[in-house]
Amino acid sequence: MEKIIAVTNQKGGVGKTTTSLSLINALHLRGYKVLGVDLDPQGSLGFSAGLDIENSETVYEVLKGTAAIEDVIVSTDLGDILPSNILLSTAELEFNTPGREYLLRNELSKVEADYDYIIIDTPPALNVLTINAYVASGALIIPMAPEILSLLGISQIRDTINTVRKYYNPDLRVLGILLNKFNGRLTLNREVLELSSEIARKLDTKVLSSKIRSSVVVAEAPAHGESVLSYAPRSNPSLDFQALLDELLAEG
Asked: Regarding beta strands 79-82 and 74-76, do their DSSP bridges make them parallel or antiparallel, or are they unpaired?
């Protein structure tokens, strides 16, 4: 498993933040030193971890160069978090100098040695923030919901990945497609699984064996400032995310 992983899909509502925070917390519980990076201006990762994202410095100040990354990272019971908030929504216009694709990579290089793993939660868009995540990462995980609309736009992700490989990060790979909110008893879910396998082939990857089952605890946990694993450790999604981490670690 690569040291720096971005969880990405330009579609919203597919479980990017839940996946990111669950992996962060699962790694932390196993004794790894892990950093979660929130690149979404909505700030969901930090909020879900119980942080006051509106009254603190964030990744925005770090990328601007007005705050040191070491000073902005917050330690939590779930793992360390580099938070975000709505100020980051100006990135596309504000970060417009040559080399802007390397802003995140350059900042993470200052703390990378302090961590075993770094998980990046990306925005639901293919913009300069997403490019920064791809340039900084060794690998991607693409979550999808078992809905037809969730499968649309994958060709855009493929084009973006290929562009990043060509110009910035030739070693970037896709670890796999992760199906969230999955119920194998439903016909639509089985059909989406088949379609996801076709998409995975186009991305030169696979559908991950671990699939995350639906549960109300996924929606409840962020309101308590917890991950699914800390909020409901015996729930189906928690068990599924632990299985996902086992799968990723086993691949090396």
From this structure: antiparallel
pLDDT digits (tens, 9 = 90+) for 57-72: 999 999 999 999 999 9
Structure tokens at 174: 């896709």
* 187-202 and 154-167 helices, crossing angle to 10°: 30
Read off the tokens for 228: 């699914």
User: From CA 98, how far away is CA 13, in angstroms rounded?
Assistant: 32
- Sheet harboring 34-38: ordered strands across? 74-76, 79-82, 34-38, 117-121, 4-7, 139-144, 173-179
Q: Is the dihedral of CA 208, 105, 81, 62 positive or negative?
A: negative
* Residue environment code for 174-190, b if the CB has 16+ CB neighbours within 10 A, otherwise e: bbbbbbbbbeeeeeebe
d(CA 119, CA 23) in angstroms, rounded, equals 8
- pLDDT single digits (tens) 140-174: 999 988 777 767 767 789 999 999 999 999 999 99
Distance between start and end Cα atoms, the chain:
5
**Given the structure tokens 């790894």, which residue do they identify?**
32
What global pTM score does this model have? 0.95
Region 172-197 average pLDDT: 84
Residues constituting the chain? 252
